[in-house]
Design goal:
This protein has 5 helices and 4 strands, in the order αβαββαααβ. The protein is of the alpha/beta class. It has a 4-stranded mixed β-sheet with strand order 3-2-1-4, with helices on both faces. The radius of gyration is 14 Å and the shape is globular. Bound molecules: calcium ion (2 copies).
Length: 144
């Protein structure tokens, strides 16, 4: 089964809608990347994907990647330097914990949306939307 097939088109749309909703109020950028397997440390893999998707290209370095490896039940949230300088140290951990609670109930899509929403709220706090903000990173969800 391909990573993409774990999600119905409706679920994929709910995820991209959540990203769009979260990005409405911030210059920050959120992306979700899902693949089947991760053969290295999950955070190292998230760093690779972050670079591959050119997520460091945002002006304010405020991109956030939510990365999931489905078969190994691993996931990571990776923020760029700009956002990491602003959020409390345990913020990503508490976001991950909230996501994990959904995943443990087999609510994959809800867990991802939870992460998007929580990241979005933090981004909004530190990087409020300005008139000339653009969607610097399009393609809200991708599959490996
Ligand atoms: Ca934006
Ligand atoms: Ca975007």
């Amino acid at each position: 089964m391909k990573a993409k097939d774990y999600f119905t088109p409706e679920e994929q749309k709910r995820i991209t809608d959540a990203v769009e909703q979260a990005e409405k109020n911030t210059s920050g950028e959120i992306r979700v990347h899902v693949e089947n397997e991760c053969r290295i440390d999950v955070l190292d893999r998230a760093v690779q994907i972050f670079a591959m998707l050119k997520m460091h290209k945002t002006k304010l370095r405020n991109g956030v990647l939510i990365y999931l490896s489905l078969k190994d039940h691993k996931f990571a949230i990776l923020g760029d330097a700009g956002i990491n300088a602003k959020v409390p140290e345990d913020f990503w951990d508490s976001t991950k914990q909230a996501m994990l609670e959904e995943f443990q109930e087999n609510r994959l899509t809800e867990g991802i949306i939870k992460g998007i929403t929580m990241a979005g709220e933090k981004l909004k706090e530190h990087f409020p939307y300005k008139q000339d903000d653009v969607d610097e990173l399009t393609n809200d969800i991708s599959f490996g």
